[in-house]
Amino acid sequence: MSIFERYDDEYRGLTSQISSKISELSSYSSSNSDAQTGVQLTQGLLRQADDLIKQMGMEATGSGDRELQKKTKTYKKTLQSLRADFDSAKQSLDRSGLLAGADSASREDRSRLLQTTDNLGRQNETLDNARRVMAETEDVALEITEELGRNREKIQSARSKVLEVSSMTNQARRLVHSMSKRETQQKIMMYGLAFILIGAIVVVVYYMQKD
């Protein structure tokens, strides 16, 4: 699975949670603390989705894939629509007075809200660190891939040179062998001619002495 596909799956999960939280906000009617907590959680999810969209945009731009870039733009529009739905639900809560009386909430409700907000902040920080590590890992992987490509070119070039030298060595070996064979043939011919010449001289001398 590619990095963009992982982002895609995470984005779909976030938008599903956001839609569910917005529906819950619309159902609140009396509990001020629950409404306030729901608003805080939804805002945190929207921030996560916004950060994720930015990562997806960077990944799509880096890959040069137009289909991924189009998908990212579509996801941005979807997130804008969800944000508008959230703003509308929040305004309805404001008008109904569920959020206006936050100052009168009990200490226990305030503590729970602060704890939830802190947990959400830590989750966001963890996700940011994970995305940063993934981005750094991707950069290192790209550098290694480029280095491997350069090394592959060097190896192929060296292999071509070795094959060329081997071919030249084989040609030289065949040439030396041919020269050696020709030299042997020439020696045999010289010895044969010398033998014939000596034989002819012997015959001539023999007939001269006979006469």
Verbal overview:
91% of the residues lie in helices and 0% in strands. It has one domain. Mean pLDDT is 79; it is low at 98-103. It is built from four helices and no strands. It is rod-shaped. It starts with a helix and ends with a helix. With 211 residues, the protein is mostly helical.
Key words describing this protein structure:
single chain, 211 residues, mainly alpha
Task: Write a short abstract of this structure.
This protein is 91% helix and 0% strand. It has 211 residues and is mostly helical. Keywords: Coiled coil, Membrane, Protein transport, Transmembrane, Transmembrane helix, Transport.
How many structural domains?
1
Q: Into which percentage range does the β-strand content fall?
A: under 5%
State Rg.
44 Å
Average pLDDT, rounded to a whole number, is: 79
Shape: rod-shaped
Distance between the termini: 111 Å
Helix content: over 70%
Structural class: mainly alpha
Outline the biggest β-sheet. Answer: none
The DSSP helix count reads 4
Q: Indicate the multimeric state.
A: single chain
Number of strands: 0
Order of helices and strands: HHHH
Uncertain spans: 98-103
InterPro entries: SNARE, v-SNARE_N_sf, Vesicle_trsprt_v-SNARE_N
Subcellular location: Membrane
Protein name: Vesicle transport v-SNARE N-terminal domain-containing protein
Membrane topology: Single-pass type IV membrane protein
